[in-house]
# Entry
Amino acid sequence: MRHFILTLICAVTATMVSAQNFSEHFANRTLRIDYIFAGNADSQIVALDELASSEGWAGRRINLDKVPVRGNGEVKMIDSQSGKIIYRTTFSSLFQEWLVTEEATQVTKSFEASFLVPFPKQEAFVEITLLSNEGKKQTSLRHKIDPQDKLIRNMDSRPVAPHEYLMKSGTAEECIDIAIVAEGYTSEEMDIFMRDARTACEEIFRYEPFASHKQRFNVVAVKLASKQSDVSVPQEDVWRQTALNSNFHTFYSPRYLTTNSVHLIHDSLAGVDYEHLIILANTDTYGGGGIYNSYTLTTAHNPQFKPVVVHEFGHSFGALADEYFYEQADHTENTYKLGYEPWEQNITTLVDFESKWKDMLDKRTKIPTEPTDKRKENYTIGVYEGGGYMTKGMYRPAVVCRMRDNVATQFCPVCQRAIERIILYNTEQE
# Structure
């Protein structure tokens, strides 16, 4: 009993400390910062586009100055008086993916980006930094946030999109909030969207560690209506009017489904509590995309819908890398560089394997590991060559995994741990 009481006191104390730290610096509001990322392979810039605010803050109120993984970029909020970091988050972006393509050596382009941060009570500075695939600084921007600034667009009076909770485990303050958003569904097709949204929700929480931590999540379905059904397919010269302007053929890759209308996404969700986004496309064409701390976008009517939505959410929520690889080069061939350790937790170049899953290996395991058992369900932890789109020099933790192929029925143990770390980072005080 004494142990229980002490544990309870510690838990309550940690919660109180975190709450006090949050309320010291932040109001119960969300500040949305819209940026434009622009440039080419040789030169990049970040430009501030617009600031907007809305009632309530659905993000974490703990571990405010910590980040779980490096990402390809970072946003920091700094108190103007003390100079202390009061909030940090990391991310990846479609712009940075594009920078390693051949097109980026020939033309300058721009991409939208948006970040949700808690609304500061006092004047603060925000620093946003973009990093290369080597972890080196590409560009950065520092700008002031004045909470009294009349040009911060107030979104409180904006009409709230129709929405329905699929899973409600607690308040937005207590839980991680996921919004599943309709794309390419007309107003007459919302019953179909709700069926698809329930399927996506059920499938994600069938996988560990989401299943064991289900009580830490809220899931809301947002019924954004499109003028036309389905989504745009440029390779077939088909362009449709949809709620979020998504399209296949991103970077000229037929299966890569994304949208650059990021500001529009967040405008459309004003008044809804959310931290993470899953966008369901009303199409049977195979494809999708997932970008860490940005969004998951996947097709809802392809036979591979269930495994793909889980896989892409592994990217956008779990900060996981793809574990598959290509024998022939494609647009991803320059995503990683040998000689540098990637920031994702489920691949390694062995440059800094100590920071990855070395502690999970059996001491008898050889590095690299030869897959002696090639069954479809071999999740034995090792160091298997091939991953991150590369056949040589990059290693993954298991023969199969949900981050490698659609036949896998679970995440490998290393991916499970990585996802769980992010869940706990958002819901438990370190």
